[in-house]
């Protein structure tokens, strides 16, 4: 890999490890939101198993929106974002590398936490495996598409809620296919069609999103 | 002694996995807490020392430049 | 009556107290934990219903009781800090918080590991388990709030308010088993009644409880020392201390 891109990746990872508290907060939010459902809806194991996949995916989407802004915020504030844009580097490549670092730091902990969430919501082992697969393929999608919107709102003062309004409609197809996969797993039915569709969306995003992110960064920085 | 043999002790009447998991994780986490707390303390004292030494070096450098500019 | 406590408003005196107490706390902790654990694992009788899995009680009950006790101690420290404006009170509060959180985690984990063979589930959403989980969230909230402030004076006050707000949860956990029908069994040890547990099982439990309490004290002293050093870095006595420590090592 281009040493410059590797350098950007390493820098993002190092900054992330210094900001451990900021990374833990979305995870705690996720945990607490999941805890609210048994308390607010019903603690009955059957109900929890029925709503579990949807609850976990919705909580994952909401908590990811909380952590999404840090993708470009610090670089925007200290001017490095402008430097990346003005330098001769390929901005789509920079975007890809930053999204990769963001996914590793924000979503891999979520994957690690998911067994605990599955236990809280009484998911069966089949359902849990399906959930893990959907999270594995689906969360990079959240990062890639999310980065496009983050790039557009990076300069805005109160862009946080706006970001949520922009991204939630876009994430709905992913939510539908992911929960459909886990529900099929609950009924012991095959779910590779749903996984295949999510995979296809991911491939499309991996190919196209970097260019969209680069364009949105140029737009927001004028 | 409630158990006939050491292997019976390890077996815990069939509940070996749960009992040893509990005791293992508990003491593991407690030991981790202790190690981290002591490391934190040592690190803090070290950083105080480093800052002290830095201040001494700054002072010496300042005096040197004073002495050389006074000449 | 509390005049003897007053010197410890000064960080230097508090630090020295920690240094003095630490070895005693460690020795007591290790002794009681070793005796309690070995007694509970190997010498206490097994339960006629639950067999040997029952031995988890020797870590589950102490950690659960002390998770609540530490939170109350934290809240008292916060109150002392607020009313008398003692920084050492706030520092003690934040020193205790991670230890209490660890105890809460241990209680939840050992409870799950005990619940699985006995009642068939790692986790159920009954009142006591849920309020213990909420206690863990509260600990994490206090720790996170303190860490979010650059100015640790402010941090202490903010975290103190949160700790006091959360203390309402403690009576709820304790009485939840009486107020709601829950899967969790009732209180084993109560001030007012004869304990519902056989004496051969009660004694190792009490020794373990003492061991965990001394452990919490020992770890809190080292953490309090760290917090004092961190906050008082520029004081001459801390500077001297850092030099003396490096010369000894």
From TrEMBL, chain A:
Subcellular localization(s) per the UniProt record: Cell inner membrane
Membrane topology recorded in Swiss-Prot or TrEMBL: Multi-pass membrane protein
UniProt KW Cytoplasm keyword: no
The organism's place on the tree of life at top rank: Bacteria
Pfam family, one: CcmB
Record's keyword terms, sorted: Cell inner membrane, Cell membrane, Cytochrome c-type biogenesis, Membrane, Transmembrane, Transmembrane helix, Transport
Keyword Metal-binding: no
GO molecular function, one term: heme transmembrane transporter activity
Transmembrane segments: 21-39, 51-68, 99-121, 127-154, 161-182, 194-217
Cellular component GO terms, alphabetical: plasma membrane
One biological process term in Gene Ontology: cytochrome complex assembly
Cross-referenced PANTHER family: CYTOCHROME C BIOGENESIS B-RELATED, HEME EXPORTER PROTEIN B
Function noted in UniProt: Required for the export of heme to the periplasm for the biogenesis of c-type cytochromes.
UniProt record similarity statement: Belongs to the CcmB/CycW/HelB family.
Record protein name field: Heme exporter protein B
